[in-house]
Amino acid sequence: MVKPSTLSMQLRLGLKSEAILEVFESEGYRDLVNLSLIKQGGEEFNVSFSSGVINVKANGSEKVLMLLEASQKAKPGSYSFNIIVKPQNTIHDYVKVEVSLLPLLKLKVNTEIPSRVVVDKSFPIRIIVLDEYGKPVNNANATVSTMGKKYRLGVTGDGVYETNLALNKTGKYSMEVNVSKEGFESTSRILEVNVAGREFPLLLLLVV
Question: Is residue 103 reached through a cis peptide bond, with omega within 30 degrees of 0 on the bond before it?
């Protein structure tokens, strides 16, 4: 037999969840060898196991790690499917898997950029990334794009990402900040920056 008989799991889109299944020797099935765990139904999910074939000796058991991931076609909601334990050509037992599939979390991005910068002079771009509950989000992929180039922002604090840029043309330009992370909806912000020319010291020429 296999435990648990019913497995309830919460899974968020874009992430994986794991559970332990344990297969036991039971009456009439001593020395269960070459057992397979097979997903039955649940086309919305990808399932993998740490062991493709299970061998259970008499009076023993075997633990198997199951990894569950929703496919790109899956939508938030409730689902169920079976994991069957199959020795040779018969079904020995099964686990009913009940999945509550949660939507992607939303990202909040606060940006800090100077209102005016000088051409060819480095200036900072700083963003703070939070989840929808206001908690800092680390290890996100944060980039800024402008003038046909993309720059990566590095982590400098809890949910804080920064980089320094220098633009080589004067004028008003748009900058697009993009942030993505597994389990979250990707988000973007459009920033405007005014690039001024260099300021030169005023020279006075005295004519005698």
Answer: no
Domain 2-102, CATH among 1.20.1200.10, 1.10.3720.10, 1.10.443.10, 2.60.40.2310: 2.60.40.2310
Highest-confidence segment of 10-19, 55-64, 124-133, 190-199 = 124-133
pTM of the model: 0.68
pLDDT at residue 155 tops 90: yes
Q: What is the DSSP string of 140-158?
A: -EEEEEETTEEEEPEEEET
107-112 vs 93-102, strand pairing mode: unpaired
How far is residue 162's CA from residue 165's CA, in Å, rounded to a whole number? 10
Radius of gyration of the chain (CA): 28
107-196 domain in CATH 2.60.40.10?
A: yes
Q: 72-96, pLDDT tens digit by residue? A: 788 999 999 998 877 665 567 788 9
